[in-house]
TrEMBL record:
Keyword Repeat: no
Record's keyword annotation contains Signal: yes
Keyword annotations of the record: Signal
Signal peptide: 1-36
Designated name of the protein: Cytochrome C
Pfam family, one: DHC
């Protein structure tokens, strides 16, 4: 299948910029705090089809970051997915939707997923993880940070979180 994303493939610019992360996090790290306990982890994508189809243009985001109704809305709108055509064959899309909804933040709220769900209104259907107040709170950087060539966009989690795909965001 040929895709023509309107933006650069994010994975190709991800450099695992540990230095960047350390620089930004200076002063906020808490040495001695428990690492990778449940509160700081979100279950990674374990469904191969989702990994393949939704990890093509960007990292396959963990379903726990959004409620089930958001995934439903997103999968119903793939023809205009943030300006890209991310259409998938219907039977594949159905399988992915089932996986995303079963593992959504409101289906199995624990750890980071619970933290993110706290900010989603009962009738809210957010399509972006990066607009959740929990995200904004942790990423209150000056605009120039997001414009760095190795970052490009807020949704490029891997640029700063080298273990993002495994569900770990508490780098130190
Ligand atoms: C053709 C490329 C492409 C494919 C395939 C694709 N996406 Fe995206 N996705 C994008 C683009 C472009 C954005 C917007 C990125 C930005 O603004 O930084 C995006 C953004 C997102 C966001 C919001 C990220 C944020 O800012 O919080 C989610 C969630 C998402 N995609 C989920 C999916 C899912 C689920 C699939 C698989 C069904 C998928 N994507 C497949 C291109 C794609
Ligand atoms: C420009 C670099 C950058 C990008 C891009 C970025 N983050 Fe972060 N993120 C940070 C820094 C710095 C922190 C705060 C230091 C820390 O806790 O490691 C942080 C903290 C977090 C935390 C809190 C970790 C905890 O357990 O307290 C989460 C969750 C998180 N980011 C998720 C994401 C997700 C999801 C994405 C992509 C949609 C993303 N980040 C993109 C730099 C970034």
């Amino acid at each position: 299948m040929t895709r023509t994303p309107t933006r650069p493939r994010l994975r190709s610019v991800a450099t695992g910029a540990a230095a960047l992360l350390i620089g930004l996090a200076a002063g906020t790290a808490q040495p001695g705090s428990a690492r990778a306990d449940d509160d700081e982890w979100i279950p990674p994508v374990t469904h191969q089809l989702t990994q393949e189809e939704c990890g093509d243009c960007h990292m396959a985001f963990q379903p726990g970051f959004l409620p089930a109704r958001s995934w439903l809305a997103m999968m119903n709108g793939l023809a205009d997915h943030f300006g890209d055509d991310a259409t998938i064959a219907p039977e594949k899309a159905d399988e992915i939707l089932v996986y995303l909804m079963a593992n959504a933040g409101d289906a199995q709220p624990s750890g980071l997923a619970r933290e993110y769900m706290r900010y989603v209104r009962e009738d809210g259907v957010p399509l972006r993880i990066t607009e959740n107040p929990a995200f904004l709170d942790e990423h209150d950087f000056r605009p120039s940070v997001w414009e760095r060539p190795e970052v490009v966009t807020k949704s490029n989690c891997l640029a700063c979180h080298k273990d993002a795909e495994r569900g770990y965001y508490d780098d130190d």
